[in-house]
Amino acid sequence: MASTTRRTKILATLGPASDSEATIRGMIAAGMDAVRLNLSHGTIDEALATHRRVRKIAKEMGAPIGTLVDLPGPKIRAGSFGRDGVLLEGGARVRLAPGNEASNTEIIHVDYADLLTDLEVGDRISLGDGGIDLEVVDAHPDHLVAQIGHGGRMSGRPGVHVPSERLRIGTPTRQDLQILDAFIEADVDMVALSFVRSAHDVRRLGTEPHPRGPLVVAKIETRSAVDNLSGILDAAGAIMIARGDLGIECPIDELPLLQKHIIRECIAHGRPAITATQMLESMVSSPTPTRAEVSDVANAVFDGSSVVMLSGETAVGNDPVNVIATMARVCERADVNFDGDTWARAVTRLHVADPEAVDGRNRRITDSLTNAAWRVAREINANAIICLTRTGFTVRAIARYRPDTPIFGFSPDERVRRQLSVSWGAHPMELSAFSGNGDKVREALDCARGDGHIRTGDIVVVLAGVDGRSRTTEVLRVIQVT
């Protein structure tokens, strides 16, 4: 479970190596805050069963573990190269043709019907994780001719990356919507949409607005998404920096700058930023990470990530529990050494955007109150910041200042509490249904004291709406616990 000094959250992918009850328990105990179900692999029924298992275990352990279902999106794959694989040599030429038939050194079949019309001479595509790249050098009525740049061995059915501006296939796909329907019925907390290119893609999901529906996480993995980031942030509830495909779509040397830019925009919009892909990749097979991986995780924290994500490391790795424990230690050390003052001064120049606000006045009020709460908590060395929230928005707004003071998000909505598992520094706490704020503040204080988070004599900063029903943060109180 999360420590008192680690503020950056850990999102871990479950898979064959980690979907047993014992392993899930171990991962939660080691510091996992939320789970990711990758629907690019396995079946809907298998993922739903894992979802139910996580809910059961989390309830037994008293841990508000959020569940994110990651929709597969418009994945394009090559025809199988077989189990043993095929060596594609650099400099060789190969034909590209639409279809699902087996691929070899002479022809690669691609399961994309518009391959011949969407690609042109000069376009570059890649196989797998970008290790093998090809350039289209000639076009014929029934196939394209491509020259292999960097070669290598391919086996199975690798993914084929086609530049996003060339694709006519949309997102979400019909399969995405079918998966989404099944998981909405299962009351999933968050849904991640792949290959987003614009805010329109996010809105096409058609889910109920948050918090009535799941928190929508837009995956930034195309150049179009980077260009349309502001609109996507207005439409989505959180952002995932999917560095794998983004590093193929954009020059690899640009990736660190893009990561910083995307996180900064997330903070400006009051959205959690999830940094993902190959963070501790070597731990799939090794008990310890590389020095570069440790630095990558720490720098993601210093960049302002709300969440760091694990993929294959926990889904198919040798020791998922050890991976979580390692990630938690690295994040905790980075959090303790985070330059909060410099960060907060930069954040004060930004203004959070609230798509639920009916006008700019509500947004300005929340901006001003959360800024004041951070300043007050720092000046008086408060022991806790308590937020009474219906949607989690107030918690996310104060969290962007990265205060040293612990943040406790009290909500009557169980799903909102689980969604706070991806909000930096937030400790989700249960609150009975909203009525008058006075009673709710006393209930929150009693709960926090009963759990040992605060003691008599402590100074607490409280943020809330006037009557508990407002969408705006209008009340800032400083209370000495009695």
What does this structure look like?
The protein is α/β, with parallel strands linked by helices and 482 residues long. The chain has three domains: 9-73 and 171-334, TIM Barrel (Alpha-Beta Barrel), CATH 3.20.20; 86-166, PK beta-barrel domain-like (M1 Pyruvate Kinase, Domain 3); 342-480, Pyruvate Kinase, Chain: A, domain 1 (3-Layer(aba) Sandwich), CATH 3.40.1380. 35% of the residues lie in helices and 21% in strands. It contains 17 helices and 21 strands. The chain has helices at 21-30, 44-61, 115-118, 174-185, 199-203, 223-227, 229-235, 243-249, 255-268, 291-303, 312-315, 320-336, 340-347, 360-379, 393-399, 414-419, 437-450, and strands spanning 9-14, 34-38, 66-70, 86-88, 93-98, 107-110, 124-127, 132-139, 144-148, 152-154, 160-161, 190-193, 215-220, 238-242, 273-276, 307-310, 384-388, 407-411, 426-430, 459-464, 475-480. The strands form four sheets. Strands 1-2-3-12-13-14-15-16 form an eight-stranded parallel β-barrel, surrounded by seven helices. A six-stranded mixed β-sheet has the order 6-5-9-8-7-11. Strands 19-18-17-20-21 form a five-stranded mixed β-sheet, with helices on both faces. The longest helix has 20 residues, at 360-379. The protein is elongated. It starts with 8 loop residues before the first strand and ends with a strand. The mean pLDDT is 91.
CATH homologous superfamily assignment of the largest domain: Phosphoenolpyruvate-binding domains
The number of helical elements comes to 17
Q: How many domains?
A: 3
Topology, number of strands: 21
Specify the structural class: alpha/beta
- Nearest-angstrom radius of gyration? 23 Å
Poorly predicted runs are none
Largest sheet: 8 strands, parallel, barrel
In CATH, the topology of the largest domain is named TIM Barrel
